[in-house]
Amino acid sequence: MSAITRILPKRRLSRWVGYFMHWKGPSLWAKLSIRGFAWLYNINLDEAEKAYTEYPSIGEFFVRRLKAGIRPVANAWAVHPADSRITQSAPIDNGTLIQAKGLTYRLDEFTQDPDCQKKWAGGCFLTYYLCPTDYHRVHSPVDGVITNVRYMPGELWPVNEWSTTNVPNLFSVNERVLVEIETDLGPVGVVFVGATNVGHIVLSFDEAIKGNQKGPHIFQHKTYSPEIPVHKGSELGMFRMGSTVVMLYPPNFRQKFGSHLDLGPVVKVNAALVK
Questions:
Q1: What is the pLDDT of residues 66-82, one digit of tens each?
Q2: Which residue, of 38, 53, 56, 106, is most buried by count of CB atoms within 10 Å of its CB?
Q3: Catalytic residues, which ones?
């Protein structure tokens, strides 16, 4: 597995998969392929905003919106950002995050933010894994204002269980986008982590920032003035295929809610994170 994955042109392969998934062929092809995709991954078609026959490609169905009211926003300080499975949750001590048993990665390398220790060291993090079955739009877990975004180019390793337990510094090596939201408890980081076959990461509030595009891949740090207001449940962006979200919470959050988190292994977007 390791040898094959290492030699694959992961970035180019991901773009090809993205093109194929968004190819708008004959309407009959779209209907059959989407129906087959939904059957293969046991997707609940009744939750989709539109009938599956109205989507022109698997890719557009993959980033489908949900029917209004399907995921009501909980009355809690923080909610879960995505339909997903929580694979890791722990304090951020000594500037270190847990990738898997026996593997860690550094907060500074992961965020590429010179002020990251002041913002999140002593806080806590949660890792959310989105599989193909899941709804693939990511929503704000908190009320606040978006202050800045960092686009960090990198590799596109898979983020499945094999990779997280075998590829050192996986989340710091892969392409990612960090959205920083200022709250009354301090800055909250929402990190979109790219992966193999993620066509690209798209932000709903800033279409200029996209992952896995052709051409040179250059680090970007964009500060917003005025800052962008955001509410719990507001859409932040989407993965054009499945991947991972890492949430970074500041020390004040850990002090207030650290022992009161709802960490069920499978969670739904907008459900309460804090009890």
A1: 999 999 999 999 999 99
A2: 38
A3: 83, 139, 243
